[in-house]
Inverse folding.
């Protein structure tokens, strides 16, 4: 399934390297919200912070996202 960006009408694509459904969810969340803290993501995605830290670390190590202080955003 291809998602479209309602604001521009363009298709959003996920990096093919992302295999984990939860990693895809976090990536899409950051695509939509541009930046967020772990607390914001935990509340919005109904995920435990401990799970998010592992996912965010992986996404950061693979250079899909970057961290600035307490906020995360797409790289």
């Amino acid at each position: 399934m291809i998602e479209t960006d309602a604001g521009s009408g363009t298709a959003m694509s996920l990096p093919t390297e992302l295999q984990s459904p939860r990693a895809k969810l976090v990536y899409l969340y950051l695509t939509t919200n541009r930046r967020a803290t772990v607390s914001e993501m935990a509340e919005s995605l109904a995920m435990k912070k401990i799970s998010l830290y592992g996912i965010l670390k992986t996404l950061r190590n693979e250079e899909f996202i970057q961290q600035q202080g307490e906020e995360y955003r797409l790289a």
